Amino acid sequence: MTPDAPWLIAGLGNxxxxxxxxxxxxxxxxxxxxxxxxxxxxxxxxxAGLTAEIGIDGHRVLLAKPLWWSINLxxxxxxxxxxxxGVPVERLVVVQDDLDFPFGSARLKxxxxxxxxxxxxxxxxxxxxxxxxxxxxxxxxxxxxxxVGDFVLKKFSEEELAVMPGELDRxxxxxxxxxxxxxxxxxxTLNARTDA
Length: 196
Fold this sequence. Notes:
By secondary structure, the protein is an alpha/beta fold. The protein has six helices and seven strands, in the order βαβββαββαβααα. It is an enzyme of class 3 (hydrolase).
């Protein structure tokens, strides 16, 4: 990997305005926040989805919202963007919602299983590797008696939306630190703030 290789930060979500504030679209919301910070706008990038380009301390960073019918088929557009922009898999970051963490909690890690997230599974299967970084944004578990499928496709509650800007800022901070200073430093920063 060359030192000046670009980064790709891909937020996972479902296409269409109805899904915009649903829990399964936390990945889209996080990359939206990062784009806003840097004054970047998303534009259509062929069949691969929407992309925006930013710079972080001299590093070229491509932000993406893959659009391929469903979040569960995110692998093909992510792979297409990696090829098109010459991004090594070591500099791919996938931002996802995660049922295993309470709302507002977030974790960064490299590799590991998809944990039941079909979009992450699709990326790993298409790329033939899980050696990419994931930012996992906690959305909590559904209330008793409510299905997971129904829960992730419902909008965040009013209480959650009220604090969402701060939670997304924490994620954006972590992603910027990852690019600037590496995974270990970004993990320390994010995990310390999450546990506080």
